[in-house]
Request: fold
Amino acid sequence: MYEQTRKKKLRIRYRLSVVFFGVILIFGLMFYKYMKSVTLEDVLSQDREITFFNSVNSGDAADDTPDDAPAAPESGDITNPVPECEPLGAEYFNDCVFIGDFITFGMASYEIVPSSNVLSSIAMSVSKIETEKIDTAYGSVTVIEALDEIKPKNIYVMLGSNGADYMTVADIYQDYQAFLNKVRIACPDSKLYILSTPPVTVGKENSLESPIKNSDIDELNSKLLDYAKNNAVRYVDVSSALKNESGCLPDDLAENDGLHFKFSAYTVLSDYILSHVS
Reply:
């Protein structure tokens, strides 16, 4: 009797299992058929809110901007190249810091500007401007580290002469703009001026040893002007004041190497800067 009751219960459980799995199978087939008949247009036409999830935290917008990207350009109208203005006095240089290579270094040597306002060295180049340490009132530091301390009102940068005989225009500009970006980050409240890279003499262009082409300098300056226009930076075209009718640096403004400046060239340079301020 017990055995018969047990077998009956097993048969009932088996039938219930068959019925359960049958219902699941039928439901699955119906759901599949429904999904096949629904289009993306049907879903989007329904009046409901669709939430998309991504990898960023809620409330944070996705941002591909590099961490070291410069701040947004300052507002206001800037005309480039900087137009001529009423000449300022030499005391204007007291509020300026000049950054560059051997040509900028000469501004301190000839006492055009105070030596404490010049961040450069004779061997400085655009490829070393970010890493080379120089002697300053703050010790032996990089230019950017010095700027962090000074926070000057006006910053003038002139690079590109040292290295123009062996670097391509593209390489010079790549290093140049990377440095300018860092200057903008370090001193967002300073007015940043780019001084165009000066020309060389015709003798330097045609020299057998380390020639430099003024056409390459012009190409670099064109790129620097575009950078200034696109980044709310001021561009001062000192090169135009230093060229003769042939587009070269006159011999009477240059040392024998056709590259370094005589004092007379620094007079032209400083007069042009003081009459082109914005």
